[in-house]
Every structure is written in structure tokens, then in C-alpha cells.
Design a protein that fits this description.
This protein has 60 residues and is α+β, with helices and mostly antiparallel strands. It has one helix and three strands, in the order αβββ. The chain has a domain of 38 residues. The longest helix is centred in the N-terminal third of the chain and has 17 residues. The protein starts with a helix and ends in an 8-residue tail after the last strand. The model has no long low-confidence stretch (mean pLDDT 80). Bound molecules: zinc ion. The site of zinc ion has 6 residues, from loops. Zinc ion binds next to loops.
């Protein structure tokens, strides 16, 4: 096992846990970090208004 493997595992486990403990903000966070929520649906990790149907790496 790689030396820092546990950190990667921990980091990948954190977002879901943080979302449970810390509900998303109800206002635009101003600096969205996108994740794919469903096919053709992308959401922001930080706020509820952050949602889009086009991939984050394409022009909005
Ligand atoms: Zn946001």
C-alpha cells in the first residue's frame, strides 16, 4: 500500500460526511466547486443554489 494511501481514502470520505454534518448554504457561495449529482446535473459542494446542467469545464 502506498505511503499516503490513507490520506486519499480519508479525503475521499470527508465530503459526504461534511455534507451530513454541515448542510449546504442557502445562498450562492460565490465560488462553486462542482460535482456530478446525476446525468446532466452538476451541483456545488458548498451551496444549494449551485446547480447546472452543463459540464463545469465547458462554457456556461
Ligand atoms: Zn456554490
Amino acid at each position: 500500500m502506498g505511503r499516503y494511501r490513507w490520506r486519499t481514502t480519508l479525503r475521499s470520505a470527508l465530503p459526504a460526511r461534511c455534507m451530513t454534518l454541515l448542510p449546504k448554504g442557502s445562498h450562492d457561495c460565490g465560488d462553486h466547486d462542482w460535482y456530478k449529482s446525476a446525468e446532466n446535473l452538476y451541483r456545488c459542494y458548498h451551496c444549494r443554489p449551485g446547480a447546472r446542467t452543463s459540464p463545469p469545464d465547458s462554457a456556461a
